[in-house]
Design a protein that fits this description.
There is one protein chain. The protein is α/β, with parallel strands linked by helices and 127 residues long. The protein has one domain (4-126): Glutaredoxin (3-Layer(aba) Sandwich), CATH 3.40.30. It contains five helices and five strands. Helix 2 links the parallel strand 2 (20-26) and strand 3. The longest helix is centred in the C-terminal third of the chain and has 19 residues, at 108-126. The termini are far apart.
């Protein structure tokens, strides 16, 4: 499966409408991003059940800034709409495969319970 170009127009819907979404935050001038590109594309072909997106940080500065992207490449993984992985730096193929496996194996009931508890705690502190 080819990667999807993410923009402000499709970023949120891509995350909300797909079970697992991996996103490569990159820029054309970034040498490590260019080296990581083929690794990411290969993983995309090997995992057709996952949505692989690429977001050009230069063209989408509002999204990158809103997510706190300060270094590229950065890889983020979302599962069921929840950010479950966020790491700056290029990964090799084996490392990316480990991330994919870990995301697939997550106990999402536990993750959602943790997110709910965290929100409740934040709301209690805010009151």
């Amino acid at each position: 499966m080819a990667t999807t170009e993410l923009t402000a127009a499709n970023f949120t819907t891509t995350i909300s409408e797909n079970d697992i979404v991996l996103i490569d935050f990159w820029a054309d001038w970034c040498a490590p991003c260019k080296r990581f590109g083929p690794v990411y594309e290969k993983a995309s072909s090997s995992n057709p059940e996952i949505t692989f997106g690429k977001l050009d940080t230069e063209a989408n500065q509002d999204i990158a800034g809103g997510l706190g992207i300060t270094s590229i490449p950065t890889i983020m993984a979302f599962r069921e709409g929840v950010l479950v992985f966020n790491q700056a730096g290029a990964l090799n193929g084996a490392q990316l495969d480990q991330v994919i496996t870990a995301v697939k194996e997550l106990d999402m009931e536990a993750v959602h319970a943790e997110v709910k508890a965290s929100r409740e705690q934040q709301e209690a502190v805010a009151e």
